[in-house]
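Notes on consecutive records. When two proteins share a document, each keeps its own sequence and its own token line. Never mix them. Below: protein one.
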Amino acid sequence: MKFPGRRKLKHYFPVSQPKPILPSIDVQPDKDTYIVGLDETIVDVVANVSDEFLSQFSIHKGLSNLVDTDTASAIYRELAAQGCISDHFAGGTIGNTIHNYSVLADDKSVLLGVMSANITLGSPAYHYICHTSSKVDMNHLQGVSGDIGRGITLITPDGERTFAIAPGDMDELNAEHIPENIIAGSAALVTCAYPLRHQGKPIKQAMLTALEHAHQHQVPTVLTLGTKHLVEENKDELLDLIKRHVNVLAMNELEAEALTGLSDPLQAADQILEYVDIVLLTAGPDGMYLCGYTDDTVKRETTNPIKSGRLADFNRWEFSRPMLRSACQNPIKVFSHIDPYMGGPEKIRNTNGAGDGALSALLHDISANHFHKDSLPNSSKHAAPFLAYSSFAQICKYSNRVSYEILVQNAPRLSRGLPEREDSLEEAYWER
């Protein structure tokens, strides 16, 4: 497991000793540090087409069009025949997140969802597997007879993006295929709010079952909100779910406003902390916020410039490390904010997946803490029941850097890890 920041390790294999056993590809709950993600498995196809192409398939320009599997297959065949396809990407907000986690950590994660039982060359399932890290354990996916989801992005000459979405069997995940032992041994469970849209589909109960297992085994639970419209349409049910089962909530500023009615991200985060332990809020060109709790006895004051917004001096304690509110005897709220890395990229090639990248960095830090605690339980790093290895401010830096990498490439997933970062003075403080 790579820790955030620079860690110098020596690897050697004495010739006098037997050759080491090759590591298992499958996750072993009693030995490995890993996270679990539950998602709707979907492949994104990007193609450049004419307006006539949209008319041919009765696709409404500029909108998200729900199509059946046969229509999606016909569209795909025509795109392939005309040579219009520019890219295939494995999609899904949680699929993106755990792929990025495995790239950053160079370690295992587990994906829960569905996968086509019979995978053929060029099928959606084929492209999904090709574009997902080999460190992602897919052995717990549920086999289905049909295709996984396919989202086709059709770009016309005027730059307008039109979407044709075929769900396939991506929502057929049954609760019986949720492995309790795998969730119980994980460092965190991460899922998204999208299954709430599908009242008649089994994936909703599967998600609730996974969250209940995590809650029962005291595994930190992480939820992403999906889209502003999803939050608006399912607000009451979503709030009830968050209050009962969620420790970490990730969102953008529009989703935060839909949930709280507050347009100021800082105020929205402050209100959401009444329900959860950590809030990760990305605010586009305004940067990102990481907010949560620590105990008053272990709070640490920042040496960065003090910031004020709707909350005065809100980042004063950002060198503190996150804790569950229930683990604090005297909990205090902690807020940290960071501007876009290097002012943001000169040219943004892709915004899809930037928030997923930020979340994967936070998950990496949470799992690093889990790993370190298992390895060195008597370390001063664990004098209090911290949830993450680094401080709010340090995690902000890490998440911000990962988001930047997504923004400057033309894909929603990392293709490689980040360069190792020099440890900051603040990290050195925590090593004392």
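Protein two starts on the next line and is unrelated to protein one.
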Amino acid sequence: MHVFTFVIADGTVIDGPAYARAVRDLGVSAAEVNRLRVRMATITGTRRAVLEVSRGSVSLALRPLAPAPAEITVEALPVRDERSQPGHNGPDLGWQRSVLVGLPTHEGLLADASSRVVQAIFSPLLTVSEGVVTVSGHPGTTPSIALDGVLGILADHGCEIANTAFGFSVRDLMLSETWVVDPIYGARLVTRWREYGALVAGRTSINRAGVPSHRAVNEMRKTRAVQV
């Protein structure tokens, strides 16, 4: 099973064509994709969509879109990554939810056996430092259409995109401007870390060297909303 979650706003989806390609690549027929498109095009208002794909079949559930902050607090002590299928969205959602609900913060970190940070509990991370945007190339990082879209925006603005093959260290994240890239809420800036029970300010005053802010990127993401 693969699960995609995103926002539908009056029949449009940010990075909609990428989601359509991903569904087709999972074996969903063209006829079924077209039926899904017709249904989504008729949705009014703003909803959170949960798209489940299993064995060539697809189902769509619509849920309310709860408000959430664009600036968040993240637990600095990583959780050992126990996902069974880290390269897939869906099979480990139950375990991920159980981890997140036990944290007193908006998000947490998953780390491998070497204590390298793979990603946030649900979403990929990126850092901004001296004009360079760095993403994780760790093999356990789950692919993300939202992250691909954000990186496309940053690349269009001339930003240098770097890749750290073995994930991040916690210190890397705390010394850089760090974003959690969420498919629902977009780029979320880590403004506070919870370290050993105390709250530590995240790095937000940096030499941006042309890198747009997370809020600016989120505004630009809205312009990528099209019918699927």
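For the record: The chain has a mean pLDDT of 95.
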